Amino acid sequence: MIAATQTGNYSMGDLVRRLGEYENLFEIGGRLAGTLDVQVVLERALENAESVCRAETSSIWELDEERQELFFRVVRGKAAGAIRNLRVPVGQGIVGSVARSGAAEMVNDVASDPRWRGDSAVFQTRAILTVPLVAEGRVIGVMQLLNPVGRDRFTEGDLRRMSLFAGILAHPLQNARLHTAQQRQFFNMVTALAETLDKRDPYTGGHVRRVVAYTMLLGAEMQLGRAELKDLWLAATLHDIGKIATPDRILSKPSPLDREEVEIMKRHPSDGAAIVSHLANPAVLQGVRNHHERLDGKGYPDGLAADRLPLIARIIAVADTYDAMTTSRPYRNGLPPAKACHEIVSSAGTQLCPEVVAAFRRLYEDGRFTVEGGEEVLRSITEPV
After folding, report:
1. How confident is the model at residue 12 (pLDDT cuts 50, 70, 90)?
2. What is the mean predicted confidence (pLDDT) over 36-60?
3. What CATH number matches the domain at 199-380, 3.90.25.10, 3.40.50.300, 1.20.58.220, 1.10.3210.10?
4. Structural element, H or E, at residue 249
5. How many CA atoms lie within 13 A of 243 on its CB side?
6. Is 323 or 279 the better-scoring residue by pLDDT?
7. pLDDT for 2 beyond 70
8. In what side-by-side order are the strands of the sheet with 87-89?
9. Of 230, 236, 325, 356, which one is least surrounded by beta carbons within 10 A?
10. Whether the predicted pLDDT of 202 surpasses 90
11. What contacts 166, CB < 8 A, 6 or more positions away?
């Protein structure tokens, strides 16, 4: 029998296997680099980690640099429910030690390690493989695997592969984190601008906050995706930005507007559209320009009807209408919520979109149509940095 061909200390079979591993890792790296959404990067990372080294539970801890604590961003597997809400100070436990040292560790008998703090009642840890995520020379997180599937111990090969995988993951993760930080700054700037404008009208204080919250609830109830909800948030936040061109004497008038003043007020959707056109986001432009359109074509500024009316504008219209009905003015009292709900439902098919109204009705009748509920939806689509 002919002996296996040797190259250095490795057989040809070993080299072929390692080449396959490297090709797999490079393919994974390409997939990870294809998005700037932190949550998507991390979820893809754990999905692909299982093809590199199968384990009963896999997780990625992210470093909260301000508090110097590690927290779970994503976790998969049997222990997910028990450990999802843990926070660990840097330097404590095995994961904290790896975050501090920046060196990977493999512990195949955790019970004998003095750093081990014990298990929950629903999961027993035998072995841990922990690798740091290092970008630009500093630890930004830690990847951890618990209990290899079908084996008692992790191996040096597992440690090598996961260390390579962590090196590939760290840079897409850092890029996504930076992108999220920029988004957060933009989010805060837009919110501050909208709330400052909101204060120009002394009779509708908090209008933007409430409309944004109601809009988020409606979008989530209609099962819009994460990206669509972000566009919806931006459009709802800026829906009245055109009022920056409306004279104060009209905004703060304590009596009903006359015909000429009404026509001036009606300019704010088109004025707002001109402002947000610089964002190069068609969905946001539609939401700002068309949130005062009606399903029957009698709205403004474009007289759009039925299928020509974008969904984002239909959603904002319901939220905006409900808040307008329930907000008091010096010359009229706001409607009680139950009466406003009846009016909204009665307007379906003429002024308002039936599908959006149906979502509103479900939320209202279940007691879920609240500002607090909408703000919870908003928090769910804005990741911590």
Report:
1. low
2. 74
3. 1.10.3210.10
4. helix 248-251
5. 24
6. 323
7. no
8. 87-89, 69-77, 55-64, 138-148, 128-135, 105-107
9. 325
10. no
11. 104, 131, 132, 133, 134, 143
Longest pairwise C-alpha distance within the chain: 101
- Dist. CA 158–CA 61, nearest whole Å: 19
Q: List the CATH code of the domain at 8-178.
A: 3.30.450.40
Q: Which phi and psi (to 5°) does residue 370 adopt?
A: -130, 155
Q: Where are the domains of the chain?
A: 8-178, 199-380
For 342, left (φ over 0), alpha (ψ -120 to 50), or beta? alpha
d(CA 228, CA 188): 19
Q: What's the pLDDT tens digit per position in 298-351?
A: 999 999 998 899 999 999 999 999 999 999 988 889 999 999 999 999 999 999
Neighbours of 32 (CB within 10 A): 23
Q: Considering the chain, what percentage of its residues have pLDDT values greater than 70? A: 84
| Of the candidates 228, 304, 250, the residue with the CA atom closest to the CA atom of residue 273 | 304
Please answer whether residues 46 and 185 qualify as being in contact, where contact means their C-beta atoms are separated by less than 8 angstroms: no
Looking at residue 105, its amino acid is: E
